[in-house]
């Protein structure tokens, strides 16, 4: 077992007691299984999280190769103890585990897609120990600029929460998922209508680590909010030539003594996020919409979402709500809708 | 002497004869000394190139460290034989050799800049063997998006040729220099008025080698013009969300079977160059100008300039002339204007 594959319990200090306390109540195991990490949640029948486990055994980082039982090993290491305590627990999983490089491919469902479409697209795979994993499919938006998501669809349904059954279910919502490949999804009546992918996080890393821009950068002790904001404003007000042009200013502002080496990383981050939002604004404008006054939700790393909130305010959007626990809420919701945890629904489905 | 620093003669098969033939006529040594290469030209008094030498001894690739005489060694290896044949030849150099990391720093001159400003900014450095190098400065455009060039200013003056003394010297010209850091300069009355830098070439390499986009790419046997054109058109017609968004389609068109692995490199290249030209078009629009109908000149690698010609045609610009030998013509011109090779001018300058 490699260190990379070692699971760690988020509640290890309570592990023994918690295991006893929840052993009678556990009702679902839910997995957020991505490229570089695997997070597992143990739910009770009311949808409360009883325990969590986190591992670095993402699908590209399994404890042993996939064709040598790597997926089984990662699953056993992470969830074996829960299943020993409560045999027969249903298991649901979302994320890259359902990609062509995953345990089994769960083909994309087409956008617009609601939770029912996700449920209908679930693909099952049996583990070596005879447990059935229910893998949630990703969503594909066709066209000459196709888009795909895998894992985010589940987070989005988690962020929607009970909205879809509320009176205002017809309301449009804009949901942002900042990250390596940032997603922006337009949701209406419980359906993912359309979405965009911005490679902002990965481009930032590539620029910083593999271009001339990184050579003059020094990582500051703490994020420089002013440099970040400056980058956002340049992208918003002076970004006409596009990001391929503006990024060079990270270097030239340094050459001309207007930006220190420590300020350059946050300035570049602000530039890229600013260009992402300017691009999103341009797309919204085509639909007679805009970021200004928009009430939207953000899902993801809190510090990164806070950067987006600051940047969004520069585009007139001051109502950006950070949604926490969207991943586990989404997994619970899809599992419920699939009848994995709701006895009534299960009976209906069997009949 | 490392292999990297070994000079090679472009005319080695004629070397002995040529050396004798031109020894009486040689009038100037001109160096195009960049980060990864050093090119040397031997001129006669009429501005004809008698001989050339090329070496990989760019300033970041010297035969030995700079503080151990690396610049002297590279210069001797490349030009020593010429100076032995014709002692006392004047020497001019342009490019990164004049940067802060170069042999000696030739501080930038401010844009707008004409050839006189470049001449006034020449900085001299003496080699170990007592030869004086005249280093041409780069050009700086100040502002909240500063821009710098070093080497390109000399190429631009080479591309202008005799235009500046012609009757239409007041005419505006747009000059493009595709490459790692593509430059677009607006020139009027023999002056570089303003310019932009697009990091297109370096971003392409970083995306291809260090992001998920490269993982599905296979280098084709020959460039795929159709895939390239498709990328250009997507950037032009569907590029509103910006390059951070459109580049993801290189992957998703692959995932959906619409773009083969071999087509993806040229498609991504077309996307980036298309976004560069769309950005340039947006900047021109602010000046009540456009690419359509523009008569412009391109300087640089022929195959790359041909890609730009194809892409420019998609923006209505069908008059893009490839200027050859701009580098050596520019070096000759600045040297002439500096009085290094023109006896009359030298006399005037001394008086």
Key traits:
homodimer; 351 residues; alpha/beta; Nucleotidyltransferase, domain 5; 2 domains; 7-stranded mixed beta sheet; 6-stranded mixed beta sheet; 13 helices; 22% strand; globular; disordered C terminus
CATH class term of the largest domain in chain A: Alpha Beta
Helix content class of chain A? 25-40%
CATH topology of the largest domain in chain A: Nucleotidyltransferase, domain 5
Report, as a whole number of angstroms, the end-to-end distance of chain A.
Answer: 44 Å
Question: Mind describing the biggest β-sheet of chain A?
Answer: 7 strands, mixed
Number of strands of chain A: 16
Q: Low-confidence runs of chain A (pLDDT<50, min 5 residues)?
A: 1-23, 344-351
Rg of chain A to the nearest angstrom?
22 Å
The CATH H-level homologous superfamily of the largest domain in chain A: 2-keto-3-deoxy-galactonokinase, substrate binding domain
Helix/strand-derived category of chain A reads alpha/beta
Pair with the biggest interface = A-B, 49 and 49 residues
> What is the average per-residue confidence, as pLDDT of chain A, rounded to a whole number?
90
Number of helices of chain A: 13
What do these coordinates show?
The structure is a homodimer of 351-residue chains. With 351 residues, the first copy, chain A, is α/β, with parallel strands linked by helices. The first copy, chain A, contains 13 helices and 16 strands. Chain A has helices at 15-23, 70-85, 115-120, 152-160, 200-210, 212-215, 225-238, 243-246, 249-255, 264-286, 302-313, 326-337, 343-350, and strands at residues 8-9, 26-33, 38-44, 49-55, 91-94, 109-110, 113-114, 123-126, 132-135, 139-141, 147-149, 172-177, 182-188, 191-198, 295-299, 319-323. Chain A has a seven-stranded mixed β-sheet with strand order 1-4-3-2-5-9-8, sandwiched between helices. A six-stranded mixed β-sheet of chain A has the order 7-14-13-12-15-16, with helices on both faces. In chain A, β2 (26-33) and β3 form a beta hairpin. In chain A, α7 runs parallel beside α10 (264-286). At the A-B interface, β14, α5, α8, α9 and α10 of A face β14, α5, α8, α9 and α10 of B.
């Amino acid at each position: 077992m490699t260190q990379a594959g070692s699971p760690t319990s988020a509640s290890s200090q309570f592990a023994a007691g918690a295991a006893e306390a929840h052993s009678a109540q556990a009702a679902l195991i839910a997995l957020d299984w991505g490229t570089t990490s695997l997070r597992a949640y143990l739910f009770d029948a009311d949808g409360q999280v009883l325990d969590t486990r986190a591992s670095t055994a993402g699908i590209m980082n399994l404890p042993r190769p996939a064709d040598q039982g790597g997926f089984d090993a990662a699953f056993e290491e992470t969830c074996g103890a829960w299943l020993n305590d409560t045999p027969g627990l249903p298991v649901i999983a979302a994320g890259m585990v359902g990609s062509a490089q995953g345990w089994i491919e769960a083909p994309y469902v087409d956008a617009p897609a609601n939770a029912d479409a996700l449920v209908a697209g679930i693909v099952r795979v049996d583990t070596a120990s005879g447990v059935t994993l229910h893998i949630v499919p990703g969503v594909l938006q066709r066209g000459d600029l196709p888009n795909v998501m895998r894992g985010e669809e589940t987070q989005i349904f988690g962020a929607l929460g009970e909205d879809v059954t509320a009176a205002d279910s017809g309301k449009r919502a804009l949901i942002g998922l900042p990250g390596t490949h940032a997603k922006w999804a337009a949701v209406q009546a419980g359906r993912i209508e359309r979405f965009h992918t911005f490679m902002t996080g990965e481009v930032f890393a590539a620029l910083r680590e593999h271009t001339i821009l990184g050579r003059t950068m020094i990582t500051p002790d703490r994020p420089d909010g002013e440099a970040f904001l400056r980058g956002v404003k340049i992208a918003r007000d002076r970004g006409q030539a596009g990001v391929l042009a503006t990024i060079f200013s990270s270097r030239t502002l340094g050459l001309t003594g207007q930006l220190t080496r420590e300020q350059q990383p946050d300035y570049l981050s602000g530039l890229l996020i600013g260009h992402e939002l300017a691009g999103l604004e341009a797309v919204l404008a085509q639909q007679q919409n805009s970021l200004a006054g928009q009430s939207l939700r953000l899902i993801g790393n809190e510090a990164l979402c806070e950067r987006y909130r600051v940047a969004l305010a520069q585009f007139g959007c001051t109502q950006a709500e950070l949604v926490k626990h969207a991943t586990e809420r989404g997994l619970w919701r899809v599992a419920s809708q699939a009848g994995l945890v709701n006895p009534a629904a299960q009976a209906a489905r069997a009949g």
